[in-house]
Design a protein that fits this description.
Layout lengths: L16 E4 L9 E6 L13 H8 L10 E4 L7 E6 L11 H17 L4 E4 L9 H13 L3 H5 L11 E4 L3 H26 L7 H11 L6 E5 L2 H7 L1 H10 L8 E8 L6 E13 L19 H16 L4 E12 L11 E3 L5 E3 L6 H17 L5 E7 L3 H7 L4 E5 L1 H5 L2 H12 L3 E5 L2 H6 L9 E2 L15 H10 L14 E5 L16 H8 L3
Parallel strand pairs: 1-6, 2-4, 2-5, 5-6, 9-10, 9-13, 12-16, 13-17, 14-15
Antiparallel strand pairs: 3-4, 7-8, 8-10, 11-12, 14-17
Helix pairs in contact: 2-3, 3-5, 5-9, 7-8, 8-10, 9-16, 10-15, 13-16
Amino acid sequence: MVLISFLFFLPCSVQPIQWTSDCKDPNFDGIILITQSYEQLPAELECLKAPLQDYSAVDCCFGEEVVVVKAPGLPGNRLVFACTGPVNRDYDDVRRFNDAAANGIKRALKTGMQRPLLVCPPHDSYAKNTLAAVLGALQILYMPLEVRESKPSPGHKVSILGIWVKNQTQGDAITEMATALESGRFVCRDIGGSDPERMAAPRVSEYVQAVFKDSPVTVTVVSDLNTLEKEYPCLAAVNRCANTVPRHQARVIKLLYCGEGPIQQTLMVVGKGVTYDTGGADIKAGGVMAGMHRDKCGSAAVAGFFQIIAKLKPKHLKVVGAMAMVRNSVGSDCYVADELVVTRAGRRIRIGNTDAEGRMAMVDLLCEMKEQALREVSPHLFTIATLTGHAVRAMGPQYSIIMDNGAAQRSGNALQWQKAGEVLGDMFEVSTIRREDYEFHKGKSEYEEILQSNNLPSSATPRGHQAPGAFLIMASGLDKHGVDSDKPLPYSHIDIAGSSGPFPGVPTGAPILAMAANYLQL
């Protein structure tokens, strides 16, 4: 008997998903098989072996590339085989399933499939490999916001994405989880990937308010210039030039979720939301400005994580979020190097480079979070940002970097994040903020307490991704809440410059899958 779950449709047009326990289900028009070896398929999938055996006899490259095989008796009479390759070597991880599913769905789209059935049998070494494969396929099936809005009605690249499972319990669980996670990535991609006008700060606030209408997430938007200048002077400095253009004016978007029952843990997350980064007065020259609309992916990740929370409604968890939405424009009123700015924490900083605007956008919001954290249950503070080119140079693309302060390090937080990221392929490298990073940002004269940045790009600066973490700690006043204080506060800085996605291309949604795996018990 075929068991089919209900469909999950979201207001934001997430790809519909449907599960079945019958790989011959006529509701689908083709199969995409994701596995290391078709010869080791479970008994329920025995019917998939014969056409692949026939094909392997005539193609010596079988298993190295995605192939389409004629398969009479199967849905659509066609079978796409996307081999993962080896998955048991020292350096293999669950991304083998993500990648194979992504390649498989690309090939299926070329065949004209509209109702593909993704078949990824469970693997003993990877507890969530089927979910990882589904998410890999969904990454390809995402349709950008501007494309959707150009159509008369919300569209999808395929009518339905099928998932093969063994039973109803598995089917309901994986469908609900995949839809919730993808809805978060969907929001993240919409905000992070859309162009600098479609997702200028005021329009981001409108989008976020629409997404969380009638949800358990409360949204508050701060737009008044006097309030921004008083409460967030560093963000206001970045906003000074953009503020002369109404459609580019800054917004601080605050999000709040309180789960049912006594709160046991409080996550407090600040995201960098630079809607376009010209570099400011230190302008990005030489053709490197293209792609700078992606500098809002940190804030996009904050919104995306809240979307997952809104769908899964975890108990005993409180999450406080802040999206620092601002444009780093260049013009007669832009902030410049050498300016002295007093942060919310009362620290006098000297601007060294206006292209280091991300830390400026976040630092006063982090200070505000610090003030609130002293009243919260088991708080942990985070900043998430596409902050430095050095992060890409140090760790390469596809990897987020996490850095803990002393209080967070004592709990093993960074390693927990790294382990959580490996569940679904949202990968992390652990880095460390050292004493040299604090020394780097100490004021160089009696005019300033803290130097915001040197005059070089981060990629040309030794320890170019670690030092900004020290700046955020110092300029926000978090250095008064280290392990040597009466009230230590755990804090982690996450740099997603490498992992946020390629340009041209679609944002990945990093690091919200790792966040979900770490805090929502997937």
